[in-house]
Specification:
The protein has 275 residues and is an alpha/beta fold. The protein folds into 2 domains: 6-128, Response regulator (Rossmann fold), CATH 3.40.50.2300; 135-272, Rossmann fold, CATH 3.40.50.2300. The chain is built from 9 helices and 10 strands. The strands form 2 sheets. It has a 5-stranded parallel sheet with strand order 2-1-3-4-5, with helices on both faces. Strands 7-6-8-9-10 form a 5-stranded parallel sheet, sandwiched between helices. Helix 1 (14-27) packs across helix 4 (115-128) and helix 4 (115-128) packs across helix 9 (253-272).
């Protein structure tokens, strides 16, 4: 699965942590489970490890629950990790992922339903994140750049469809949605420089505005050249166009794969929480 095989339980109750820990270890023997009783312990754990799922209560001895979530979201390792708030207040499941701050709760769970229902919720969530290879759309007119990037993606078991121009990509997305009644692509990668008729920015704006495919439905990674010393990266323009993330060329294999897995996880998390 794409999610990391490690879970974090944050709960001030010793008995609740113990029960959840034992139940999760029984149900998910191949996944490491770490249990913390305070925000301080949890922050230490999230700085050290990447987690597939984090559950937390809101009443902690040393920090308010939402403040803890904000701290976790500041860390690169867990800025996209699904976080489930276990609360006495029954609240609807929701996703509220902010593109810049990532200060989000993935879902709420009413603890009145009991620990077994929570364990079932976690297991169902992970089961929905299946082991099918991520399906990517890649747009790049440069034969050299496309050859390098394609080689990296195929080596890392991504399923890939490559287009040389934005118009062809838009046509494919329309056909894909018409055929499947949803966007079957897990993420899209586009170069900033495409052709005079449609730049990378214009492609992304068309996808967001005309096709109505939002940040969760089709995460987008923009590729651009490293700016020279007298140039500045236009972060406002990059994210304002509707980009989830960006990467500079020449690309690093490890960075490219990590960024893509983060984006694919965003889409898979969204799908896993749909009824």
């Amino acid at each position: 699965m794409l999610l990391k095989k490690r879970l974090l339980i944050i709960d001030s109750s010793d008995s609740a942590r113990s029960i959840l820990f034992k139940e999760l270890m029984t149900r998910l023997p191949d996944i490491d489970v770490i249990a913390c009783g305070s925000a301080r312990e949890a922050i230490t754990a999230t700085k050290r490890f990447e987690f597939g799922v984090i559950t937390t209560g809101l009443s902690l001895p040393d920090m308010e629950g939402y403040a803890l979530i904000a701290e976790i979201r500041k860390q690169q390792k867990n800025r996209d990790t699904p976080i489930f708030v276990v609360s006495g207040d029954s609240q609807p499941q929701m996703i509220d992922i902010d593109n810049t701050e990532m200060a989000a709760v993935t879902a709420y769970f009413d603890k009145a339903e009991g620990h077994r229902a929570l364990v079932n919720f976690i297991c169902d969530f992970l089961d929905k994140d299946n082991e099918i290879a991520a399906k990517l759309m890649y747009i790049d007119p440069s034969a050299t750049s496309a050859a390098i990037t394609t080689s990296i993606l195929l080596k890392n078991n991504f399923e890939l469809t490559h287009f040389k121009d934005g118009a062809s990509a838009i046509a494919e997305l329309k056909l894909d949605f018409s055929t499947n009644r949803h966007c079957s692509y897990d993420a899209l990668i586009t170069d900033l420089t495409l052709n005079p008729d449609m730049s990378g920015f214009n492609l992304i704006k068309t996808i967001r505005s005309d096709l109505k495919l939002d940040y969760l439905t089709l995460p987008i990674l923009l590729m651009t050249v490293e700016p020279s010393e007298d140039e500045r990266t236009d972060f406002t323009g990059i994210f304002g166009a509707g980009t989830n993330d960006f990467i500079t060329k020449p690309v690093s294999e490890s960075v490219l794969v990590e960024r893509l897995l983060n984006l694919v996880n965003i889409k898979r998390q969204n799908e896993a929480l749909q009824p």
